[in-house]
Amino acid sequence: MDFTFNAFYTLIAAVIVLLLGRFLVNKIDFLKRYNIPEPVAGGLVAAIISLLVHSLWGYSITTSAELQTSFMLIFFASIGLSANFSKLREGGIGLVIFLFAVSAFIILQNAVGMSLATLLGIDPLIGLIAGSITLTGGHGTAGAWGEIFEVEHGIQGALALGMASATFGLIIGGIIGGPLAKLLINRYNLATARTDQQIEKRDNTPMDSTSEEYVQFEYPHRLRLITADNAITTLGLFAGCLAFAEFMTGFSKGTAFELPTFVWALGGGVLLRNVLEGIFKVQIFDRAIDVFGNASLSLYLAMALLSLKLWQLADLAGPLMVILGAQTITMALYAAFVTFRIMGKNYDAAVLAAGHCGFGMGATPTAVANMQAITNMYGASHKAFLIVPLCGAFFVDLINATVIQMILKFFA
User: Fold this and answer.
1) In contact, 58 and 1? CB cutoff 8 Å
2) Residue 23 backbone dihedrals phi, psi, to 5 degrees
3) Contact between residue 5 and residue 64 where contact means Cβ atoms under 8 Å apart
4) Where can this protein be found (predicted)?
């Protein structure tokens, strides 16, 4: 029997998951030591409880997909609204190098998936589904390509296969990023972990948007001072971004520049902010954008993990589990030996490696949550928070779509 939660019950459940995750991370030393994000910790417990209930009594819960999507779009809009052109220039050559590392990994990810599929005696396109389509692309890309693979390429159950693979990636991406970065930080003595007292003192010190240390998403628990007027104005900006995204998604459908809705939300944010700030000299309230963006990030991740049906993963065929296991090892090794090294083998590079694990296996929100868990413990990494959100939310989807199209043309 399936129970459907409306938006209100979904929101209540997501808040409970977040509070549970915060409690677990604060009380269980293992979770804190290896920098597991709070939404991942709480969400996995909720998913396991849901699995037990389904196995024992046959009950399951379906949450509000519309509300989950709305929070995801708000998060991406907040990335765009935070990206003024002067800050984007700060990414500099680091952004270009990171994009190169990400692009090379997308090709490697598909090579691993398709090669293993061939060796295991299944259609190599199934390896592509268990490659960058679902792991780098996430649930949205999996859904978009699933129907195409079923109709045009004859891969039966491609949509279900893609959703299960993306679910696996979302979980693993949130698990391996923090421990990997911690391992790199400790091995090369890149930073010293802060005490609970130091973290509490920092979080209770109000963050000023004019401060040099201010970077969006870096410290989700830190105090920010905003007013009701700031909040209302910022909500209007978010509404404009989401309206633009909805319009452009419909307008571009079936054209050469068709893009996922969240990419349009991010692009709308970049456009709106820089037009208002650069041309009309309107003040943009970064602190308010940061508050709404961080809240949306946490709620989206909580809802995504809350909606997981782990019993669906049990239906995955053995060969697919082999491929996904190999992809996990490939991601960890690539982040440690390629991403970390070419980004400088310093503290910023370790945080970037954690972020790469997040969107290389799961999604951009997972990448940001991974980095937040690290910087909350070890300190700021402005470079990582300038590069990863924009790269993971915008450029990586364009690169991924191009690579997938080229592979399909070759196999066609």
Assistant:
1) yes
2) -65, -45
3) yes
4) Cell inner membrane
Whole-angstrom CA distances from 304 to 63, 67, 235, 357, 363 are 9, 11, 23, 18, 11
Give burial (CB, 10 Å; 0-12/13-18/19+) of 54: middle
Report the alpha-carbon angle 345-350-355, nearest 5.
135
**In whole angstroms, what is the distance from residue 341 CA to residue 108 CA?**
17
pLDDT at 8: 95
Which of 319, 327, 262, 259 has the alpha carbon at shortest distance from 105? Answer: 327
**275-312 b/e (C-beta count within 10 Å ≥ 16 → b):** ebeeeeeeebbbbbbbbbbbbbbbbbbbbbbbbbbbee
d(CA 253, CA 399): 19
How confident is the model over 215-247, as pLDDT tens digits?
A: 678 878 888 888 999 999 999 999 999 999 999
- Residue whose entry in the numeric block shows the structure tokens 């679902």: 134
Radius of gyration, alpha carbons of the chain: 20
**Tokens read off for 161:** 């296969």
Would you mind telling me the total number of residues written for the chain in this entry? 412
Q: Is 211 exposed, middle or buried (0-12, 13-18, 19+ CB in 10 A)?
A: exposed
Nearest to 270 by CA among 291, 248, 298, 295: 248
Q: 2-411 has which CATH code? A: 1.20.1530
Q: What is the pLDDT of residues 276-303, one digit of tens each?
A: 998 998 989 988 999 999 999 899 888 9
